[in-house]
Amino acid sequence: MGIASEVFGDALPVAERYAEFLAGPGVERGLIGPREVDRLWERHLINCAVVAEAIPADARVVDIGSGAGLPGLVLAIVRPDLKITLLEPLLRRTTFLTEAVGLLELGNVEVRRGRAEDAAADLSVDVATARAVAPLERLAGWALPLLRPGGELLALKGERAATELEEARPVLARFGVRTAELLQVGQGKVDPPTTLVRVVAERAAARAPRRAKGSRKRSS
């Protein structure tokens, strides 16, 4: 908990309430696996909180496929300056997220039920985040239309991050992105550090084609 205190600072009590909510209703409703309870802090909460290192002050953020609120709710806790939209298509998950926002008394969060390709009609943000949603070549097509020119996609990725980035380069080229690179955040706070794929939009992207029903993959 020493690292958690360092990462969350004065917001640690709020993070603790969120951890309890994940370990209780989150498990009961199938948003978090029972085996994850013992490693909630290192594998989920701190792992997501350190993403804040890569987000500029006062940014407007959309968390795509927010699920149980990872990383979106964690970022809202650790960075009250951010304005965050938790975007999630499934009702049971948006219900969970709405309850969590109320429990944690977070005034900087909006829960929105819907898909990224539909939200692009009226949502323009500085940063899009995503964790365990889809391979980068698909995720980019959903996220980039949500970004203002110069906005950033920050995708939390694991061991295949470099491979996914290379596989996605043709898609990124079609969108005319400015840069696409790997970043590591949380050095000395989480082991291994959190790996991000950072994609910077050069211009506002065209809307992605609608996905076929049932094509979305998400496990939590």
From TrEMBL:
Q: Which InterPro entries match?
A: rRNA_ssu_MeTfrase_G (IPR003682), SAM-dependent_MTases_sf (IPR029063)
What protein does this entry describe?
A: Ribosomal RNA small subunit methyltransferase G
Kindly state one GO CC term assigned in the UniProt record. cytosol
Residues the record lists as binding S-adenosyl-L-methionine: 65, 70, 116-117, 131
Recorded family membership:
Belongs to the methyltransferase superfamily. RNA methyltransferase RsmG family.
Q: Which SUPFAM superfamilies match?
A: S-adenosyl-L-methionine-dependent methyltransferases (SSF53335)
**NCBIfam families cross-referenced by the UniProt entry:** rsmG_gidB
Pfam families (alphabetical): GidB (PF02527)
Query: What is the predominant subcellular site recorded for this chain?
Result: cytoplasm
Q: What is its EC number?
A: 2.1.1.-
Keywords of this entry: Cytoplasm, Methyltransferase, rRNA processing, S-adenosyl-L-methionine, Transferase
GO molecular function terms noted in the UniProt entry = rRNA (guanine-N7-)-methyltransferase activity
Compartments it resides in: Cytoplasm
Q: Which organism is it from?
A: Actinomadura macrotermitis
Q: What does this protein do?
A: Specifically methylates the N7 position of a guanine in 16S rRNA.
